Amino acid sequence: MKRSEINKALKELEKMIADHQYYLPKFANFTPEEWKTKGHEFDEIRDNMLGWDITDYGMGDFDKYGFSLFTIRNGNIKMKDKYKKPYAEKFLYLKEGQYALNHFHWYKMEDIINRGGGNILIRVYNSLPDEEIDKEGDVTVHIDGEVQVVPAGTQVKLEPGMSITIMQGMYHDFEVEPGTGPVLIGEVSQCNDDNIDNRFNPPAGRFPEIEEDEPPYRLLCNEYPEAPEK
User: Fold this and answer.
1) Residue 229: what pLDDT?
2) DSSP H or E run through 142
C-alpha cells in the first residue's frame, strides 16, 4: 500500500469513531516524531501492538480486500508473566466493497459488535480436524445471547447494536451489506496476536508492504521505534 492510502484510511477511521461519539486514548495522537522520544513506560503499547493498524492481506487492493483498525487494549500470549491482561478490545472500520478474508483463530474467542453505521454480513463455517472448511455441517452461533443453528456458509446479518460470538476454530469472513453504508465495528476478545493466531483459508498475509509516497500521519502498531536509552 502507498503511505498516502494508509494515511487516508486512518483518518477515515478516526472520523468514524468521532462521529459515533467514541473516544480514543491519548497515545492515538502521538506523532511519528513524538514516538522517537517515548521511553520504556510505553512498552506495553509496543509489546502488545496497541494503536493504529491496517491490513490489505498483502494483496495490494485495499478497497476490495482489507480494513483499518485501532487496538485499544490487549494482553500478550507470549509474555503472560509480564502482561496479565487476558482480553483485548478494538475498533474496526469497514467500507462498502471491502472484504475481510475467511479465517479462524486457534487461541482467540471474540465478540464482533456493530457499533454503528451500516449492516455487517458475517459468513460462518465450522472447521474440520485437518483445519479445512466444513462446508456441510451446521454452525451453532451465539447472537446477543441467543443460540441459533444455521447452515454452513450462512451470512449472519448484524444491524447496529448487534453482536456475534466467534468461537475458536470457527471460520468467518465479513463485509458490509450493500447499500447500508460503512460500519464501525467493535471487537472484544481474548488476547490478540495477529502474527501467530490467524488461519486464513486460502492463505493470505496480514500486514501491508508500504510504499513511502508521503510522510506517515500516524505510525502503525508494527512500526514503533524502540525506546531511547537514557
Assistant:
1) 84
2) strand 139-143
